[in-house]
Amino acid sequence: MFDFITIALRLPDMDGLELAHYVRESAPQIYVPIVVVSGDVDARLHQRSLGEDVTDYFDKSLGFKALAEFIRGYVRPESAAEGTVLYVEDSRVVALATRRMLEKIGLTVRHVVSVEDALALLETERAQGQVGADVVLTDVSLKGELTGGDLLDQIRNQFHYGKGKLPVLVMTGDENPANQAALLRAGANDLVEKPVEEKLLITKLLFQLRVAQHLRGHDAAA
User: Fold this and answer.
1) pLDDT tens digits, residue range 110-127?
2) Does 156 have pLDDT greater than 80?
3) CA 168 to CA 143: how far, in whole Å?
4) Which CATH architecture has domain 5-75?
5) What is the CATH number of domain 84-221?
6) 70: closest CA among 186, 160, 190?
């Protein structure tokens, strides 16, 4: 059995999602990551129509080097990483477990319990000419009047930080495809469904960090 499978959405003899379903049906007792690699995955992603058989997706326009790093994150996760995570979570129990998870691989975590606190932190950093984090990890439902969706809106439309400058991963327990699609259209780099699976969260987080660092390096060179 393979350790990792990548598929295209369009294949000569069947749809890639049909192949993913066939793999799941053929070996239901073994969970193998199945990742869609395609240039037109974005439309299906926004519609949340990739299906439950697919573990994750990858936009091939990011290039083969990025794809290799993405796959490596699944089959051989990094033991150490660098970067600062602005983590927004109001549950002490969840926050403690997730913070330990992130700090274990070397990430610096700036934890706040509300969107209001996160915005205040970002505003303070902006006044000093800094962003304040390399990536944002936020829950949707939080204490206070503002939600994770509001934070996403502020980051994209008030601070004007694009997906490359400040990636945002949104954790959600909402399985409604329309609500998930709305978060992606609003500018979320990716979603992490709850309950959170550690390996998947770390892989997605590190991938967004690597892409953002690559884009910042490209902008600096230009």
Assistant:
1) 999 999 999 999 999 999
2) yes
3) 19
4) 3-Layer(aba) Sandwich (3.40)
5) 3.40.50.2300
6) 190
